[in-house]
Amino acid sequence: MSRAKELTKPEAIEHLIRMIRGEKVMLDSELAALYGVETKVLVRAVRRNLPRFPEDFMFRLTREEFEILRSQFVTSNWGGRRYPPYAFTEQGVAMLSGLLNSPRAIQVNVQIMRAFVRLRQMLSAHADLARKLESLEKKYDSQFRAVFDAIRELMTPPTSKTRRIGYHREDG
Q: Is 18 part of a structural domain of the chain?
């Protein structure tokens, strides 16, 4: 399988989807690489069509968010970028399909949409599991309470006092 096809598989795209400001997004430079265009070409096309990209479709990272995100990478692949990147939600990526109309862009967009759908299905399965666990809890008496509490604790994501982007090392 060619390198281009490898990059456009939903499984390969899923790791490019990040949670920023509580939204699942993809960054402009990574989208540009998938589409086979320069980041500045993608951004220029978006700027020419700004009414198509309201804030819930696309937003620009703050300097602080950008610095936090950049610090997550051991080797920087940001290429000395001067400005924080744009982040595109699923709807923003779908809107890009109307701007970038090459055969590659169409193929990549289909795969990106599939990756977002797969993530939604995984989240839905997690919610279904939580509902089934709650149902079992109600059905059985307190003898299994400790088991249910342990399972629920494993399903609960860690809480953080500050909203940080990416993976972080626990201090202390």
A: yes
Q: At what angle do helices 39-48 and 90-99 cross, to 10 degrees?
A: 90
pLDDT digits (tens, 9 = 90+) for 136-151: 666 665 556 677 677 7
Domain assignment of residue 86, yes or no: yes
Provide the residue range defining the domain that includes 96. 3-124
In a domain, 167, yes or no: no
CB 59 within 8 A of CB 50: no
Residue 147: how many CB atoms within 10 A of its CB? 13
Distance separating alpha carbons of residues 84 and 67, to the nearest angstrom: 9
pTM tops 0.70: no
Question: Looking at beta carbons, which pairs linking 8-12 to residues 24 or more positions away fall under 8 Å?
Answer: 8/34, 8/107, 8/108, 8/111, 9/111, 10/111, 10/112, 10/114, 10/115, 10/118, 11/115
